[in-house]
Amino acid sequence: MRDFSYDRADNVGAAIKSHVSGADSAYIAGGTTLLDLAKLEVMRPGHIVDVRRTGLDRIERLDDGRLCIGTNVTNTDLAYHEDVTTHHKLLSEALLSGASTSIRNKATTGGNVMQRCRCSYFRDNVSPCNKRDPGSGCAAIDGHSRSVYAVLGTSKQCIVAHPSDMCVAMAAIGATVSVAGPNGKRDIDFGDFHLLPGDTPWREHALASDEMITHVTLDAPIDGAKSHYLKLRDRASYQFALASSGVIVATEGGVIRHARIALGGVGTKPWRAERAERYLVGKPATADNFGHAANMALAEARPTEDNAFKIPLGRQAIVRSLTTVTA
Amino acid sequence: MSTDIIGAAKPRIDGTAKLSGSAPYAADHYPANLAYAYGVFSTIAAGEITSIDVSRAKKMPGVIEIFHHDNFPNLHRTPSSFVQQNKVDETRLPFEDNHVYYGGQFVALVVADTFENARDAAYHVDVAYRAKKPVTSLAQALAQGEPKPADNKKHERGDPDTAYSGAAHKIEATYTTPIETHNPMEMHATTAHWHDGHLTFYEASQGVVFAKHTMAAIFGINPARIDARAPYIGSGFGSKLWIWPHAVACAAAARELDRPVQLVVPRQQMFTTTGHRAATQQKIRLATDDDGKLVSISHDSINTTSFVNRYVESCGSCTKSLYGCDNVRITESTVQVNHGTPTSMRAPGAAQGLFALESAIDEMAEQIGMDPLEFRRRNYTDRDGSKDLPFSSVHLLEAYDKAADKFRWSKRNPKIGSMMRGPEILGWGMAACNWEAMKRDCDARVSLRADGTAFASCATQDIGTGTYTIVAQTVASLTGLPLERIEVELGNSSYPKGPLSGGSWATATALPAIHNATAKAIDALKQHAVEEDGVLAGRDAGQLEFVNGKLHGNGRSFSFADVLKARKIGEAFGEAHTNAASGDEYSFRSFGAHFVEIGWDPGISRLRVHRVVSAIDVGQIVNAKTAANQVEGAIDMGIGMALFEQTEYDHRTGMPINNNYAEYLVPTHLDQPESVDVILLDHPDTKFNELGVRGIGEIGITGMAAAVANAVYHATGKRVRDLPIRIEDLIQT
């Protein structure tokens, strides 16, 4: 692990200023990604700005029903917050299905949004990897590509899945990411925050240089909707999703009024299945309609030999989670 | 002998030290002036090093020295003899030459003033390679050439080919098991310290006597100058039976630099340079007559080994004798791949071998339309057909009966997919388990001390299994002392020679020696009592009785402390030697059966183990708590073997892919079955040794993967012959 300078900022302005002043700066909160990768020298921060003392650790329900989450709110605190368990059950379920208790106690909201991928070739610091070493290629495409690789949104430069469960729930709920930087504050729609790999897989998010996340604000809950997050994996705990589905559905007399479907483990970013959602609205909540929606959600999937099973598994996650919330 | 302490469910006497974090493991020792070593590991799996440039690393803060094949001291390979107690599985020394045989091989060693500085500098050693195309899998190796037979492992009796071809019913199937990595919690580690030509080293070791003699052979010095210590081990599962290159590298660096050096193997290299369970491909042929009696068994296995050393998995070790059959053939052979050298992993050979055999037995039972339990009962034997000897003690039928009864096997509907619960299809499967019982030579020393405590020492180890506690229980059984007045020291090679903690033989080996040494200590105490200045001077020692820590004679009683104080003596001690078991009259084996219920939810392709009942026949149980704990842990590991464990390699480079705790899957707490019932039959095997104990570490994992696979078949109709059983094997598309 290389030497780095360390600064603990008391407020957002000071954090940004410190970040600007350093070379190869990185913000740190829970450190569950950064420290891991820095020890492997996959990330090589020269200057670390600790943002945990900047406040931003509150969850506030706004008058319009939206929920404003400070970047430093831990995954544990968010998962058990009453507004979340009451109005955004899938977010609580998603958080609690991720990592382990000790990691969730450290991991923060902003940090989770920013977490890096679990690709073995990214982490080995040797193999070609466009994320780590732009232009070097992607060792995963013809290599070992089972568990943590995507079937949706992949490119010829990168196929790794986005690892977060929390972000899948946020994609389904709808959210705004508030960021601050040297040029002031701005809001980014959650759906635009994470970038598809395309030809530039090293560009993972919409943050500009020196910007940091200050809040994530969830859209107001849909009246009368039920939600559920279903995560499928080999073992029952402590594994990234092979396929997961976060759904929000409101029905009226057996007919679907609102539908949100987001997928994890199968997409290169937290994946909204908007065509499938539109298909469902106005239709009866039947197994056939769920199956058709699931097919639509995975229609564009491009698997490798190793992860082809994620297509049927992703469909199963969608069908079961929709069945659960409409039962 | 006090019977209430033997078999009692006593908590571990080392439990507080471990729970409180005060138990020192190999890397918890910090001799003065300690330096830290960190390895540079090959990033190719085959080829050679063309250059090592240390110029950048040498300038890094705190760097003391960087070793590699150009400047590493000349050492000797160990003869690697089990009898000489200097065995290893990888005889090649670190930095012997510029050849690379596997990914993650030590290619350089940085020593620095701190762990962080050593690691940082190690990242800055520039190694250039000339890479060769590696052999990365068993299948690839087989495609390139014939496997090499291991002749001494072959067994043949009768005429299995003729019996097979003429039989009424027959099956032939091929099963594979992947490479698995032991993944003990505690990393392999060495803290080495030379002083006046003597080496003291703390090692994460399952065998301090072997570690000492191996190091002596490698450094070419008298074993008396070496002291190997492993008072606490964070488990090993076989990976710590012998020392690996890191220990040699660390000790050599400490000698060259004339200061203590500590080396901890990083988690990633626990997948490369400290052994693993070999991959296997096993062909089984079974045939029966019309009554369902086995008339032919053949089991041909191939396992992967390295290009450095040959390691043979004894996949047919149980197949030879588990069932009665006159026509049996076992062959074992190997192919070379560019991985590190395999080594024993919990129930080596048997774990993989019984997956194949016990799956095949179910396939055979199905073909003849017989209940799989009834088929096994029908082929039960009380003789070891491979040795033509009776088993010393076998209660396999009782194990079947008790476990089946508790599991309610009679309620099983044999029709595939017929047992439903909610969205799940339940599958019920079973399998037999089996493991050889072994007992080695052993020395031990026990003393009764003037402070009123007893002290037992033996150069065996407690690898987390409860050996400290059962040694204390054995001393207590003769002395009547409470466990808190019995001190036990293990894991020090200068103590009387004790066994490796492996092969499930530590209990059967060490306890008789401890028992005899305790008896001798009591005799010595009686002798002290009747000496001229003794408390019972002039009496006949043979007439004295020692009960509950007190000596009784002539109507009086004395604490043993008083007996010793009267003579101003510190201790009355006994030293004992017990011999290895003789296999001339009996075959010594342990037996058991697993019954498993799985739930398969086809709508979301979710497979979970709900319920396990296991009955285990391992002789006298010494501690009901630690014994059940061993079986429960092994059941869990068997679930991992069935459903999760597999070290995955890139098929182009041969480098491991899932070399960490996040991606190498073992069962988590949430994967535990809702209920696990372990039935310990507890029939002393006194033909094996006078205490009737056999050992319990390995047997619980044997057969477990087959029981799960058989249950999966019952639920899904899919016979998965390649482990692990994964979603893609079962998903309905």
Automatic annotation (TrEMBL), chain A:
It comes from Salinisphaera hydrothermalis (strain C41B8). InterPro entries: CO_DH_flav_C (IPR005107), CO_DH_flav_C_dom_sf (IPR036683), Diverse_Substr_Oxidored (IPR051312), FAD-bd_PCMH (IPR016166), FAD-bd_PCMH-like_sf (IPR036318), FAD-bd_PCMH_sub1 (IPR016167), FAD-bd_PCMH_sub2 (IPR016169), Mopterin_DH_FAD-bd (IPR002346). Keywords: FAD, Flavoprotein. One of its GO terms (molecular function) is FAD binding. It holds the Pfam family CO_deh_flav_C. It comes from the Bacteria. Coiled coil: none annotated. Residues 1-223 form the FAD-binding PCMH-type domain. This is FAD-binding molybdopterin dehydrogenase.
From TrEMBL, chain B:
Residues 139-164 are annotated as: Disordered. Residues 20-133 form the Aldehyde oxidase/xanthine dehydrogenase a/b hammerhead domain. One of its GO terms (molecular function) is iron ion binding. Keywords: Molybdenum, Oxidoreductase. Pfam families: Ald_Xan_dh_C, MoCoBD_1, MoCoBD_2. SMART domains: Ald_Xan_dh_C. InterPro entries: Ald_Oxase/Xan_DH_a/b (IPR000674), Ald_Oxase/Xan_DH_a/b_sf (IPR036856), Ald_Oxase/xanthine_DH-like (IPR016208), AldOxase/xan_DH_MoCoBD1 (IPR008274), AldOxase/xan_DH_MoCoBD2 (IPR046867), AldOxase/xan_DH_Mopterin-bd_sf (IPR037165). Residues 148-160 have a biased composition (Basic and acidic residues). It comes from the Bacteria. Belongs to the xanthine dehydrogenase family. This is Xanthine dehydrogenase, molybdenum binding subunit apoprotein. The lineage of its organism: Bacteria, Pseudomonadati, Pseudomonadota, Gammaproteobacteria, Salinisphaerales.
